[in-house]
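Hi, here's the filled form for the chain we discussed.

Project: internal
Contact: R.S.
Residues: 402
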Amino acid sequence: MKAKIELAVDNIGDSLIKCENKYKDDFLLPSGKIGISLFLYYSGKFLNKDSFLEFSRYYFEECFETLNTFSDKINGRTLYGGYTGILWLFQHYINIGFIEYNEDAKSVFDVFDELIKKEFFVEKQIKNYDLLYGLLGYGVYFLERNKLKNQVRVLNDVVSILDEISIKKEYGITWEDRFERKENKDKELINLGFAHGVPSIIVFLSYVYKETGNKEAVNLIHKAIDFLKYHELDTSKESCFSYNILNEQPDKYPSRLAWCYGDLGIGYAILKSGVLISNPNYIKYGEEILLNLVGKTLQDEVTGVKDAGFCHGASGIAHLLYKAFKYTNNISFYKSSEYWIEIALSMQDKDGGYSRYHYSDNEKRWQYEPDNGLLEGASGVGLCLISHVISDELYWDSCFLL
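And the returned structure, exactly as it came back:
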């Protein structure tokens, strides 16, 4: 397996460098040079390949220059949609020793930390907790910053905002979705996906508790998991949880197998929370949810797997199940992760890259399209492959709150 992964990772790196023109003006974390730089760093270390490390630094420096000039090439602010993604990688590279922390770096962080903290108020006003494009994304950045400089007060501020914008119910607490609310403006929509919903809040709060000892964070975790338990579906259903809850009613469709939506993200979030706050009951509950998924294969239509991408493809499934194995030592998770790694390897394009399956507005149909990015493309797949054969914990996935 390791030899196959080494070859696949090498081919991904070569393909990314060869097709640079396809993403030359994309400086975002999920789709552009920030995510690609992240892959090239870890693959360069994994393969002991200096050329990958050189391109990793080069791509990062290009992105960093947009911060210095406030370039119109990146005018968003959020973790996945703007400059916070660049700053997250900057801090990550400092934390792992790839980039030196000096006075110039300090000056950059001093400026942007204050700008980002001002965004807290904006997100609070519209109750936008979103991981990718809202408050939680800023929180992820400050979790990374906290490894170098104490950010306890800032992290506690995020917890306080999450408490203020939560919806209190008799059986727990939750948060109203703002990402998919356009079609349901007059209804209470609760998102149960990891990417845009309650599970990511639970994991973030768990990290904050581990870093700060914030007791209110633990209180929110308990009540949020109580909310999920209340809405767990009948065990005869194809999934334990629905995609969303609209006006107290769960979706009637079974959820897919993916990081972004479905039982995999929910089960992992509860398991990870249990690990972070040392709660054996949550570890057991999360493990039970995940064990329902280990027998599922590509042939099971309910999985919804059409590509290898991290977000909702084979590599992301493999990565979460492998981490579940590390936390529980349950061999079933390891075997299932091996299966999905093999599927991801089999999906590699002839040129060494990977394609995502998506709906084309121009073509008015579903189709495959080459994707180099972290979220849905080759960079994310490659990082999942590397993590599968490295014994040490790699922290590239902290931008996904894993």
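Let me know if anything looks off before we file it.
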